[in-house]
Design a protein that fits this description.
Length: 187
């Protein structure tokens, strides 16, 4: 269990002070990330709100245990929501034109959509295999994908910088092996 489990309990118990802390501590960084990926200010806020609601639903279940920093968990949810939203927007193949009725998306866009779908499939496979590695490895990998410096992450996890780098490398190797095995077994 991660120390940020306190936020899960706060959501479950409707602790408005702690919930306000979630928005104050995590929303600015995650919104900044989403804006850098092309989201609008309002979209970024909506995505963050939806992610907090998703975490609330998990918290309400009662058996959910956070094994990584909440910020990293929220960031993963927000990234996935942003990717899904972007994919959904790309899937709208027919758009109404004011002048000439309906027009199709350019044929070059279908290649981009196929490439994007392939990327999503790979990400989905990685996310599935991420659930199969140890909680500590999952925590390290997820934490390392935040914007925090690795030295700061090492300090927060109570390990040395060298240990964090080595463990991250070992965990990534384990994750990559699982993904490759899944791909090999599927072929």
């Amino acid at each position: 269990m991660h120390t940020d489990q306190q936020y899960i309990e706060a959501l479950k118990n409707h602790d408005s002070l702690q919930i306000e802390g979630i928005y104050k501590n995590f929303a600015p960084g995650i919104k900044k990330y989403l804006l850098s990926k092309g989201a609008g200010e309002e979209e970024a806020g909506d995505i963050f709100q939806e992610a907090v609601i998703d975490v609330y639903k998990l918290a309400r279940d009662g058996s959910f245990v956070l094994t990584c920093p909440l910020e990293a968990f929220l960031l993963l949810i927000c990234k996935r929501k942003w990717i899904n939203q972007a994919e959904k927007n790309k899937r709208q193949g027919v758009t109404k034109s004011i002048d000439d009725g309906y027009t199709q998306i350019a044929s070059g866009d279908t290649e981009a959509a196929a490439l994007y779908a392939d990327t999503l499939e790979k990400e989905s496979s990685v996310m599935e295999m991420l659930q199969k590695i140890s909680a500590r490895c999952r925590e390290i990998i997820v934490a390392c994908y935040t914007d925090k410096p690795q030295q700061q992450l090492a300090d927060e996890m109570g390990v040395s910088y060298a240990y964090l780098r080595k463990k991250k490398s070992l965990c990534m190797a384990e994750l990559i092996a699982l993904v490759r095995n899944k791909k090999h077994n599927a072929a």
